[in-house]
Amino acid sequence: MMAARRTKFTPRGEIRFDEPMSKHTSWRVGGPADQFFVPADKQDLIEYIRALEPATPVTWVGLGSNLLVRDAGIRGVVIATHKCLKQIEAVGSNRIYIESGVPGAKIARFGASRNLTGAEFFAGIPGTFGGALAMNAGAFGAETWDVVCKVETLDQSGKIQERSPMEFSIGYRSVSVSSGEWFLSGEILLRAGDGSRGRQKIREFLARRASTQPVQVPNAGSVFRNPERDHAARLIESAGLKGTRQGGATVSELHANFIVNSGNATAADIEALIDRVRRSVCHTHGIELEREVRIIGDAQH
User: Would you state the CATH architecture of domain 88-212?
Assistant: First the structure.
């Protein structure tokens, strides 16, 4: 389906039709997007949004982590941010301006390079800043909105707003942002510190992640949110689910809250395994796990 436009506009970026989302998700699964847009830059993106008909479905994708796209794909438009919204720069002595396509690891390294501390945990977030803002992503005991001091958003009408954290209801892995509003950029507030110690902390975080998570195999990060005063991984493991398979999808032997693509998984395999794990944990422990990963798109009939 080709997206209708309100005004005549020729983007400078790249538009692809029927683009396989398996190329753009960390699980390496997902059917085609009707239209896949890679903006040339921030202004190109803003003008593109303003030219779309208001009813056009729009999906934003960064590095494709924390995301399961069903096998029949996505209707409307998918916008890829990580190749265009990639500016990061120091603002004053202790703030950093970050566009939504910047990867978490780059934010961590940038902070340390400026002798600022407080952003090291971003090294453990496998997605982009925009995705981290949208879900209040966290790692190693810290969360994204702990350090955010303001954000810039874009809505489906093309209106740009600067907003403060006080304007959102922010919780564990959740942020109250409307479905037609997206994060373009934000600023984080850090503390002066020792850059060498920050870099050492980042190395330690990455080493811990590599030893405890299946980073060498396609996955989407933590599948379920941790229940209050407990861990999803503990509940899944104690239910005897490590190594459980569904088609080409497997509950990781290394970390029970990860589902990996063993090589030939479909999105349907992964979604069925997610449901199977949730039901089993509920039956065993009486606890209903909540998904952390987003599931979007149409199922194959």
Answer: 2-Layer Sandwich (3.30)
